[in-house]
Each structure stands twice: as structure tokens, then as C-alpha cells.
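User: C-alpha cells for this one?
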Amino acid sequence: MTSFEAVTFPEARPSGYDLLTDEPVFDPERHLALTEPESVTTLRDLGYSDGDVVGTATDVAISSPIRILSDEGADVMLTTARRLRAFGRAAGDRIERSVRGGVYRSAWLRDLCLSPEVAAHMSAVYGTEVAPHPMGVHLGHLNYEPSVIDAAVDKWHHDTLPLDYVMTVTDPTITPGGRFEYFVGTKAEAAALRDAGEKPPVDRVVAPGLPGPGWAVAMHGNMVVHRGGPLTAEAERITMVNGYVALDPMRHHQSRTVDLLGVDDPEVLFTEWTRFAAWRTTARLQALIDDIGFGIRPDEAAAALTEAVHEALAAAEEMQRSDHRTEHYE
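Assistant:
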């Protein structure tokens, strides 16, 4: 695939998702100021083995800070996030207030999140071709400060999607606490610490120095354990997360969409989940059509077909689960 959209963003909006009025038009020339990372940390740097890395979207774990938005773009982003705050609600037991599906309410946020310029830039950072995530709930996710300062903005966790960037919307240089932090270790190590009643030790926690609003880190969200730390005083603190997928359908989808049951609006979630699973399955079936040769044994043919449709069948089963659980390390 060569398009920067794995699945074309729908023209229709879910019921009750009215667009904000009086928004500026997203202009990449005015609103973007893309910069390269000075360095990247790999999954192996975090302690993952070759076996852990094979089949994932990329070996990149997390980048040093990169700039996404210009000063003007950062101002628009802050205004947009403040206007969307009214639609916030808890994201399971992890985050007290977040907004998901904001791309159905803000045309400016939608166009930023679908920007081919940013997608191309992220492809270069990750070293593999990526596209904005086909599920709109993973585009422009907004996290807001909690109501009490001694609570972490977001618990130690890894994301429900493979790739994303975490961008500061408010100015981190003047925010009291609320640092974005990641664990220099693996998910298995984080789980072992949790099971022992412990958290990642301070000497294995990194807080990238984000220079200002509109700056971000590109992250392998499904593999990097991270959090938003607690504030030390009452303050506005907003971040935006935008999701991506590798365009190679043979790579693992690295998604825990089932965690979104009870978090996202069902009217939005099940439609987007179906489209995502169908896109992945269609691409895998097409690869089978293109590549299968003569002389294949019956068991090989059956295995190839089963593997091609496995994700769609797994999604259909997960959609009917009644338990609502968000995975984290606290």
C-alpha cells in the first residue's frame, strides 16, 4: 500500500458528534515545524530479545524529543484541547479525564492527525512506512490533569496500539510536575515489579526533556512502559497522543482493542474495530492471493487461510466479551 491512510477516514460522523465551529483550517505550512530526533532508543536497548522484537512494527522503542507543531500550531492545539475538555471522561481506571474521538468533533485536530506530512516524518523516525491508525479513537487522544495532585496523570502502562507520539499541549517547562516518563526495561520486568508490589525504580526511569508545547516523543507504545507522573501543584496539564500502524500487514497488529470495552463509545468502537480487522484481513488475504504457488499441500493451504483470517475471527470473539478491564502495572 502506498496511501498514508490505511483505511480512509469516514466522511460521516457518529450521532451526537457535532463539529466545533469557528475553527481555523489546518495548514501544514503554518501549523507544523517538524524536526528530527537527535537519537532513538531501540527495543533491544530496553532489554527485549530478538525473539521479542521479531514481527513487531519496528525495532525503535522511543525517540528523543521531536517538534511537531509550530508556535501558531501549538496555540491552535491548546485552544482546541480546551474546547474539547467538556467531552472528557474517565478512561477505565487509568486516567481520570480524557477525550477520545475528538477527531469527529474538530476538523483541525482531524487534519493534523491524518496529516501525510507528519505520517511521512514518523515513517522516517520509525524506519518503516506507517499510516495514521485506522481507528479514529486512537487519533488525537487527549489526556487532562487529575483533580488531585498526588495522583499520577496516567498509571504505568503500555498502550493498546503499536505506534504513537505523545505530544505536550500545555507548556511542560512551566508545569509543576506531571512529567512524561518511561521505564528502561521490558513489559515482563514491569509486570514482575507490579506483582512484587513495587514500581519502576527511579534509576531506571527517564523523563525526556520536552522543550515546550507542540514537542513530542515518537514511541513504540505497545512495547514501552510509560506514564504521566503526578503534579506537584494544581495546574492545567494536557497531552495529545496520535496513533499509527505499520503498512506491512504481515507485521503483528500489536493491539489490545478488547481493553477499550467500557472505555470508548460503543457506537464508535465497534464500527472502527470492524473496519480495522477487515483492513488487516483483506491485506493478508490479498497477499495470499498474490503469493501462493502450485503444489501446496491441503494442510498448508488450510493453515495459510486460517492464519490470514485469524485476526478477524479473534476480533469477533473479543467483541462479545462482557468483562471491562484496562491493563496497567499498578
